[in-house]
Design goal:
The protein is mainly α. The chain has 30 helices and no strands.
């Protein structure tokens, strides 16, 4: 049993924590009492004492709560270790469930999602064994929060709905919390109206139970939903309500969160100076709490403010820090948002290759999370960049055809053959896109070859052939100012290499030749041989295919020859020197396996 002196000391510490007195003295006393109580519990566990430590367990829970309020998460977790040892030894009382729930909360605050879920599972089993319906509901709510943070949104929603089913008519305090969390999930998915209606259901429950923290939270969340709808006035009003309550009750975490949301609002309304001020206020709290996810969010917003001010180096620093922290905390939503904003910065700075890569990473995560609102935003930006590349590619392709009328349509046909061949070989969508672009531009270097050589009706001299052989290198040089987010330039440079090492410009052999270049090589050969040239008439499809088959494993890789022959036999590839394909149709085929119509 605790002495009156210890009990009074704990009560005094709780009072001091609420009054926010000087923390060094408070922490020293808290550490001293925690160590004394922990020894009492350890004595019981190790058999040195027979007195059941019921009062000590309650006291250690209060101390853990105090550590949490002071942002000392590791200390809070450490003092709970003794209770976990009691549980392992079979000493199972109702307070144990609360202890494991607290343990889960601590682990959640450190972004240790799987460990948090394990702790919650233990608490869930105890509450179920005790028949504590409200406790079971509360744990499902907590597990919903963890699954939301780790990106398992469908599982998160299941936990929230199960929690509501258990206490729908019995516990307004808990019901309000669950609706608040469920609203946050709907908002993240982009269903702002459903989120707002769900949040509004919380307010009567929080008001009837005098839950000021809950009210501050839901006002903050309502502000976020209205901001998502572009209703800045309502958003600002709810944020101010939240900040008023959280400041009055000295709820530091909520104050920091609301500061961040106000910062984001000023970013959205193009007021970077005010946004930075709110970010700095948030960071002063978040660093004291060691809230890594909150700090990551603050860095992201600071990155946006620097992007708006066109301070690229500072913006890059903040975005990289945000990405690092989100990765460390395994937060997919935060990571997707940081990638997106970083991608926009790179786009604005003219770093299109890096922008496309970052935006694609963001899109991949948002699609996995099924965040419809964010998916639409990222897709729009990716589409803009794709359009930029397509404009460049089509202009360059047209320049090649204008230079050499005998190759009219050749680039688009080689691009089509290369595209379907790459897909048949099972390459990724990004690899296919890179090969498509390289195939469309594979002859770009011929712009720099003299017309007399390109259109010469007879056999080329050795010097003339040497000039022709330089076109892959000249093509890559001409693209030096273009940044592609896919592997393009190597495929162009080496598309005249041959599997046995007899090609040019580097005499590469076997799989030292990039796969894209090998694919373009066979597509280029097929179309060149089946088209009329200034120095010879076209060969038949059958003749050309026979030559390709005879050079299986010699000029062309066996696997690629087999796939190409199969495509011809199936009629997917056919020799037609009049066929032309638009880049838009080819590009669409990269993601959607649709039939492409050729235009004579």
């Amino acid at each position: 049993m605790l002495t009156e002196e210890v009990a009074a000391a704990i009560e005094q510490l709780e009072h001091e924590a609420s009054d926010s007195v000087e923390k060094v003295h408070l922490m020293e006393n808290l550490d001293r009492i925690a160590s004394w109580i922990k020894r009492r519990i350890d004595d019981f566990i190790d058999g040195r004492s027979r007195a059941e430590p019921r009062d000590e367990i309650t006291a250690i829970m209060r101390i853990s709560d105090l550590y949490c309020r002071l942002g000392r998460w590791e200390k809070a977790s450490h003092v709970l270790d003794s209770i976990e040892r009691l549980l392992a030894g079979g000493y199972c009382v109702a307070v144990m469930a609360h202890a494991m729930k607290q343990k889960g909360r601590l682990l959640r605050s450190r972004a240790r999602w799987d460990e948090a879920l394990e702790a919650y599972q233990v608490a869930l089993k105890i509450y179920e064994k005790l028949g504590n319906v409200e406790g079971v509901s509360d744990i499902h709510n907590s597990m919903g929060i963890v699954n939301f943070e780790k990106g398992s949104w469908d599982t998160s929603e299941q936990h929230y709905l199960e929690a509501l089913d258990l206490i729908e008519d019995t516990s307004p305090a808990l019901r309000g919390k669950i609706h608040n969390n469920l609203g946050a999930l709907y908002n993240a998915r982009g269903d702002c109206d459903r989120a707002i209606s769900t949040y509004l259901r919380c307010i009567p429950d929080f008001e009837s139970t005098a839950n000021e923290i809950g009210l501050a939270q839901v006002y903050n969340n309502l502000g976020m939903s209205f901001a998502s709808k572009g209703d800045w006035e309502n958003a600002a009003g709810y944020y101010e309500k939240s900040l008023h309550i959280s400041t009055r009750i000295e709820e530091s975490e909520l104050m920091a969160l609301t500061y961040l949301n106000l910062a984001q609002l000023h970013v959205d309304t193009s007021s970077p100076t005010q946004a930075e001020e709110y970010c700095r206020l948030a960071l002063s709290i978040l660093r004291d709490l060691d809230d890594q996810l909150g700090i990551a969010e603050a860095y992201k917003i600071l990155g946006i403010t620097e992007r708006l001010n066109r301070n690229w180096s500072k913006a890059r620093y903040y975005f990289e820090q945000s990405i690092m922290l989100n990765e460390r905390c395994s937060s997919p939503l935060g990571l997707a948002e940081a990638y997106f904003e970083f991608g926009l910065m790179c786009r604005d700075a003219g770093k299109n290759e890096e922008a496309h890569s970052l935006l694609s990473k963001s899109l991949s995560i948002f699609e996995r999370l099924k965040a419809s609102k964010d998916i639409e935003s990222v897709r729009t930006e990716v589409s803009k960049l794709d359009r930029l590349y397509l404009n460049i590619i089509e202009a360059l392709g047209a320049a090649v055809e204008n230079k050499d009328p005998y190759t009219m349509g050749h680039s688009s046909r080689v691009a089509y053959y290369s595209l379907v061949l790459a897909q048949r070989l099972g390459l990724s969508a990004d690899d296919v896109r890179g090969i498509l672009i390289a195939a469309y531009l594979h002859d770009i270097g011929k712009i720099y070859v003299e017309d007399e050589i390109l259109n010469k009706p007879g056999k080329l001299t050795s010097l003339e052939f040497e000039s022709i052989k330089r076109h892959p290198e000249m093509g890559v040089a001409s693209l030096s100012a273009v940044e592609f987010p896919w592997e393009v330039k190597e495929s162009i440079l080496y598309h005249h290499e041959r599997f046995d090492g007899s090609g040019y410009p580097a005499g590469l052999k076997g799989d030292d030749i990039p796969m894209g270049a090998q694919i373009i090589a066979i597509a280029d050969f097929f179309d060149a041989m089946t088209s009329d040239r200034s120095y010879r008439p076209a060969w038949s499809q059958e003749q050309t295919l026979a030559i390709i088959a005879n050079n299986r494993g010699i000029l062309f890789k066996a696997q690629i020859v087999d796939a190409f022959v199969e495509l011809v036999e199936q009629g997917i590839i056919t020799a037609d020197s009049k066929a032309r394909y638009t880049m838009n149709a080819l590009w669409k085929r990269c993601s959607e396996r649709v039939t492409i119509s050729a235009h004579p």
